[in-house]
Amino acid sequence: MMKQTKWLINLSVLLALIAITVGAKNLSPSRVALQDDTVLPDTLAVSDTVALPFASYKMGAAIDSVLLSEADSCVSDYAPLHNFFAALDSLRAGKDTVVTIVQLGDSHIQAGHYSGRTMRLLQQQFGNAGRGWIAPFKLSKTNEPDDYFISSVIREWVAGRCIQHNRKCPIGPGGIGIQSVSPSINLDISMAPNNGAGYSFNQAVIYRGEKSMPMLPAGKMKDSIETILSQTACAPGVITDTFRISGLIDTLQLQSTRRKQGTDKLLPASSFKNLYYGFNLTNGQPGILYHSVGVNGAMYVNYTDEDYVRQLALLNPSLLIISLGTNETFGRRFNRSEFAGQIETFISLVKKQMPHTAILLTTPPECYKRVYVNKKRTYVRNENTERAAKTIVDVARREGVACWDLFAATGGKSSSAKWHKAGLMGRDRVHFTKEGYQEQGTLLYRALMQTYNRYIADNNVR
Q1: Fewer CB within 10 A of the end CB, N or C, for the chain?
Q2: Which residues pair with 40 in a beta bridge?
Q3: Would you call 225 helix, strand, or coil by DSSP?
């Protein structure tokens, strides 16, 4: 039996939180030491996590009606994530490649602690290809992950978000956009000294609106940076420009230009519509590139737009993790059938625009909702989160995509009381503390790794 994992929270509390149902034989004794001194096994037993339920998925009439050989059956059981796992195996074999993951979600993802923990653990295992997607959240007047900063001397930004009924400005792959009428704009990127350690970069790609002023390098390093400006949109409303740096850096200063490319002519400021969406930071190394895309308050319907999904496809993910469902559960009349239809509509767009991308649905964890009893505010468990979780699992089976049940992994029914008692939930009892989110990120990593190791064992992959 493997050593018990050292957790950030008290072991007895954690055992009360996590529902463990199945045991299995260890595949390897090797271990991975994490940056925070937590120790996780390289190869995980089922008892360490919650497995992804592949065997119950119907992959279509062809698989249902044809008698498969034993080897073919193993592959079909893992069909939802087969190509992704094969890509991971290429990294383990030492191939110079990048495997891209996008985790799309709501406020649980925007904060960056949940997805950030999964990102770090996967990169420790398979290699670090860079920080990936970063968005100008603080400039849009909302919370930003704590491992980077995007700043500007401009203060009069107008912010658009996917959740707005009438968007104040267009949005990009990150579900937000910022716009300014200023005739001169700067954007400075910097990695946080401690939280952003390990994410130096030598290439930055900016995503901007078609009519926005291009940005050029500024500051001391401007002459050592190669700038490649694009003239045409690569997706609806999006232009990408690339900055290639001669060495790894932690900061990049950019300044807008009104100069017509290839000439000394200055174009009038009124001819531009200055709209910026975010950046993709890479380091030129093989490994995992993990894009975290989350917007506070987001629901499936907020991302269900074909133009948006085409923008998201620019990130070229091998795996798209969809972590939504919490906000839908606070509606007055939560309807499982309606919710299922919303998930299915979004998945159909993803399959159309990203046909080679593996899809992994995750369920929301249980939380509280605020009610008033005798004019006094109190909190009760949000029963709709359990209904939402069951709906997501059912849709995953019907759609033939992978699903990880975070609701069950965090303890299932009535688990929110235990997480709150352990100090892992925020004051609103909907969101979690940084430590709580990091625990969830660790659980997701374990689920992926445990299933990946099963895939290797079942298919005789070295």
Answers
A1: C
A2: 32
A3: strand
For the residues 49-54, what does the mean pLDDT come to?
A: 40
User: In a 3-state reduction of DSSP, which class is residue 242?
Assistant: strand
Q: Can you spell out the DSSP letters for 321-376? A: EEE--TGGGGSTT--HHHHHHHHHHHHHHHHHH-TT-EEEEEPPPP-EEEEEETTE
Asked whether the predicted pLDDT for residue 454 surpasses 60, the reply is yes
Residues 6+ apart with CB under 8 A from 221: 245, 249, 253
Task: Report the C-alpha gap between 267 and 220 in whole angstroms.
Answer: 26
414: left (phi over 0), alpha (psi -120 to 50) or beta: left
Residue-level pLDDT at 151? 97
Whole-number pLDDT of residue 316: 97
CB atoms within 10 A of CB 131: 29
| Cα angle, residue 402 at apex, residues 397 and 408 outer, rounded to 5° | 85
pLDDT-derived band at 345 (thresholds 50, 70, 90) equals very high
C-alpha closest to that of 339 among 297, 299, 303, 305: 299
d(CA 255, CA 457): 52
Task: For the chain, give every domain's residue range.
Answer: 11-129+286-458, 134-282
User: Tokens representing 434?
Assistant: 């940084």
CA within 13 Å, CB half, 424: 25
Q: Quick check: 139 pLDDT over 50? A: yes
- Please state, in angstroms and rounded to a whole number, the distance separating the CA atoms of residues 369 and 202: 45
52: pLDDT strictly greater than 60? no
Q: Is 211 helix (H, G, I), strand (E, B) or coil?
A: coil
Degrees, nearest 5: CA angle 6-12-13: 100
In contact, 443 and 5? CB cutoff 8 Å: no
Name the fold adopted by 134-282: Jelly Rolls (2.60.120)
Kindly state the DSSP code that residue 389 receives in the 8-state scheme: H
pTM comes to 0.86
